[in-house]
Amino acid sequence: KEFLLDEIYSFRYMLGFTGTAYIENDYFNDVLFRYSLRQAIEEGFVKKIWYVAKDDSSNEYQKFQKIWQNHEKNKEQYDKLRPLTILVTNSIQNAKRLETRIVEFLSEQEGISEEEVREHKVLTVTSHKDHAANILRLENVDSKDESIEWIVSVSMLTEGWDVKNVFQIVPMEERAFNSKLLIAQVLGRGLRVPIEYKQSKATIYNHHSWSGKIKG
């Protein structure tokens, strides 16, 4: 930005390109051209969005069961890839707690040790120093040599993260999706279309109390 605004160069015009033209909930007021998400879906450049409008689970275990079942269906439907599910929290502490709970659930559900789940199935990505190595591993989660299927993250992942095998996104708290900017950033991580499946969809497994925001 310093370079662009430097009076030495005196640029008369600057054009910006972004997929998230928001400051919190406010749309940029200087947009010259808009290519909407709806148009991109209709023209097949991104995945279709299917959102669970109402989750009637009575507890977290039931919710995990349904998320896991969706994940397994994605593995059957998109068997040329290794589908990913992203679980989104609103803080590092909540991400750590969620990692513990999802590891325990997957260990029981799939009959493997918690150590194996942590090593091969679940990747937690935050700015905390404990997760520094995970950020490097995140770059290769779509590799054939990688075994990760579940990603726990705080609100949004790294900019420019270009992975096409995300087929389910789960906001765990409303505060993780409390602005149009966050919604656009998180959804953007799951909408890239894999070459193997031009017709594909991303499931947003959200709570009914904020499903209207996703629909919007």
- Gross morphology: globular
| C-alpha-based Rg, rounded | 19 Å
Query: pLDDT average, as an integer?
Result: 85
Uncertain stretches of 5 or more adjacent residues = none
- The count of DSSP E runs of length 2 or more, i.e. the number of strands, is 8
The first-to-last residue Cα distance is: 32 Å
Tell me about this structure.
- The protein is an alpha/beta fold and 216 residues long.
- The chain is 35% helix and 16% strand.
- The chain has helices spanning 2-5, 37-42, 60-77, 92-110, 114-120, 132-138, 180-188, 211-215, and strands at 22-23, 26-27, 48-52, 84-89, 122-125, 150-154, 166-171, 201-205.
- The chain has a six-stranded parallel beta sheet with strand order 3-8-7-4-6-5. A two-stranded antiparallel ribbon has the order 1-2.
- Helix 4 (92-110) packs across helix 5.
- The longest helix is centred in the middle third of the chain and has 19 residues, at 92-110.
- The mean pLDDT is 85.
Keyword list:
216 residues; alpha/beta; 6-stranded parallel beta sheet; two-stranded antiparallel ribbon; 8 helices; globular
Topology:
Blueprint: H1 2-5, E1 22-23, E2 26-27, H2 37-42, E3 48-52, H3 60-77, E4 84-89, H4 92-110, H5 114-120, E5 122-125, H6 132-138, E6 150-154, E7 166-171, H7 180-188, E8 201-205, H8 211-215
Parallel strand pairs: 3-8, 4-6, 4-7, 5-6, 7-8
Antiparallel strand pairs: 1-2
Helix pairs in contact: 4-5
In short:
By secondary structure, the protein is α/β, with parallel strands linked by helices. 35% of the residues lie in helices and 16% in strands.
